[in-house]
Amino acid sequence: MTRQIHLAAHFPGVNNTTVWTDPAAGSQIDFSSFEYFARTAERGVFDYLFLAEGLRLREHRGQIHELDVLGRPNTLAILAALAAVTEHIGLVGTLSTTFNEPFELARQLGTLDLLSGGRAGWNAVTSSDAFHGANFRRGGYLDHADRYTRASEFAELSKQLWASWRPDAIVADADTGVFLDERGVSRVRHDTRLFDVDALFDVPASPQGRPVIVQAGDSADGRDFATAHADVIFSLHTEFEDAQEFYRDVKGRLAAHGRTEESLKILPAATFVLGDTLAEAQERSREIALAQVRPETAITYLEQVWNRDFSGYDPDGPLPDVEPDTGPESAQGFANRHAAVRSRITKLRETAVAENLSIRELVIRLTANHTFVGTPDVIASEIDRYVQERATDGFTVVGHVTPHGLDEFTDRVIPLLQERGTYRESYEDGATLHDLLGLPPVTPAVPLPVGG
């Protein structure tokens, strides 16, 4: 049976790989950029657009890291505005389970879902470091080991709140107008070490029942969370054999939760560079990579790993032959264990030696190694192969320039996928994000134990 390809569109941000020096580059904070990107993705009949989120401006040596994307308005506000200028495409935002509360976030997402006609999605991420925590009341209190415990309970409680409205809870009457059937909403009670909630949820269910849940963790805990709660995984596994292995592992865990293979979609991040010939595409890929990883970017990357000043090193030279400073926090504020830092550096050195890479070439290899490079026909063929041979269910397409990074893919690759019959040609009226992704209908959440 031919499998249908699913595609998401990633708005560039919270990274160092967006090429702001490109003449076509625009703002990452003006609404016009978000609107243009959303309209392009909808023209390409994508399942959803996806916003990353940074909870704090990145810093380096105690100063704002100016080589990175700076500034990102509130994710939910952006998605709400985009809901008004789009009709069909899903709207997915990254929001932390560590620095939010279940009722508040469920209410905000539920509202977006209701007002958009069932197009909302939530990329549930965890945050365990003191750098981001310093912006919040609880600071860096959450132990790394507890982040998925909280995330799992957070997701389950959110699903309880979304499921607390019966579909027929709102009753229309010609004489009295619209009112709430008092039997249509269930009280949600939850009292554990992490959360104490006694609530009557005040947002009616949307046409899709609840927002789609996306997850991006790759650890064992992350995979367990995904198979228990997520509808989509945003993974980093893009090499074909590696992607197949990840697909088998994650999909193989679903049965333990009473789920089927099609109830969870795997959409890895994928970058692309097009050309009329392979040689042209390869040359463009090299030019884009050099623009993404400028000399100062490469040095900064190493400084953030080693936690040392490497300003005197040549980015086109070999890796520094010095030991890292494994203090309590690294240059960008992330708590790193001594062994983990040394292990990472060992792997970097092994890669550099094996491939004879300079500092800059190594950073390009790690951060700007484009997934698909070739002619539109070759890239369409590869995307189709990944899906048909169960390496992925599709991809999250990431451009290198804002807001035009999706233009070429939409104009030159999408039509070829449609010709193959493996990608939709239009949206169905009234389709929710669950429908676009081909997910099974939402089932009511199982009540959580009280006092756990």
TrEMBL record:
Binding sites annotated in the UniProt record for FMN: T94, H144, Y148, S219
Q: Which gene specifies this protein's sequence?
A: moxC_1
One GO molecular-function entry: monooxygenase activity
* EC number assigned by the record: 1.14.-.-
**Ranges where the record places region Disordered:** 314-335
Protein name in UniProt: Putative monooxygenase MoxC
The UniProt entry, under Pfam families, shows: Bac_luciferase (PF00296)
Q: Which species?
A: Microbacterium oxydans
The signal peptide here is none
Q: Give the family this protein belongs to, as stated in its UniProt record.
A: Belongs to the NtaA/SnaA/DszA monooxygenase family.
InterPro entries (alphabetical): Diverse_substr_monoxygenases, Luciferase-like_dom, Luciferase-like_sf, NTA_MOA
Tell me which residues make up the Luciferase-like domain: 25-389
